[in-house]
Amino acid sequence: MSEFREPLKRARGLGSAKTGTQHFMVQRVTAVALIFLGAWFVYLTLGLLHADYASARATLAEPLNAVLAIALVIAVFWHAQLGVQVVLEDYVQRTAKQVVYQVLLRFACFFAGAAGVLAVLRIALGS
Amino acid sequence: MSSTGRPLSPHLGIYRWQIQMVTSILHRATGIALAAGSLLLLAWLCALAAGPDAYAAVRGFCSSWIGIVLLIGWSWSLSYHLLNGIRHLLQDAGLGFAKPVFVRNGFIVVAGSIILTALIWACVLLQGGAA
């Protein structure tokens, strides 16, 4: 069937769908959070270098440390998902393979994030 | 690759290496490395939740020679991605785009990442090593 509509007519309304900057913004917000959370995590692990199991667990169970650890886990895997997503978009062909990789990436990052949060909760709540 | 007879865009191989492309490539490479390295963070947290035996296993891995090599790589990746990430945030604000400034900041970030990594491992050594 021949196309009677102008290309502009077909393009209109198919733009950003009002979410064009979301990826950009979330990547930046998690990046700013990770500046502070990353520095805190390096400081924490250097302090726990020779700590035994009980004292390491007790340190992470402190409320402030537990909250920061949960924030770190969420920010890390969210930021990683956004970054690796773009790498896959750039280097994997736009076939079914691309879709499968993107879905697997989201499953993996969500699973890792959920597992990390649960681990910190178990440490903090002592179960 | 099938030959279409069309001209191809010039590929990486023909460019002279310069700091602008090095910092860009390293940012992506360290990002991928850190995404993989974050699994060690996850393993550490899960081991801490699971009990002393699991925690000892993760610590044993971290103080093995392959663990140390990976940790040195990841600490540098974190240092580099952190510093160059701050540079990217400043660029988002429109700063640092003049060519001499852009080049200078590239060298600052690369040198800074090595210094930061050295500082982290100096802290480790001052505490008597990673073991």
What does this structure look like?
- The complex is a heterodimer of chains A (127) and B (131).
- In chain A, helix 2 crosses helix 4 (63-91) and helix 4 runs antiparallel to helix 5.
- Chain A is elongated, with a radius of gyration of 21 Å.
- By secondary structure, chain A is mostly helical.
- Chain A contains five helices and no strands.
- Chain A has helices at 7-11, 22-47, 53-61, 63-91, 96-125.
- Chain B is mostly helical.
- Chain B contains four helices and no strands.
- The termini of chain B are far apart.
- At the A-B interface, helix 2, helix 3, helix 4 and helix 5 of A face helix 1, helix 2, helix 3 and helix 4 of B.
Task: Give the topology.
The complex is a heterodimer of chains A (127) and B (131).
Chain A: H1 7-11, H2 22-47, H3 53-61, H4 63-91, H5 96-125
Helix pairs in contact in A: 2-4, 3-5, 4-5
Chain B: H1 19-50, H2 52-63, H3 65-92, H4 99-126
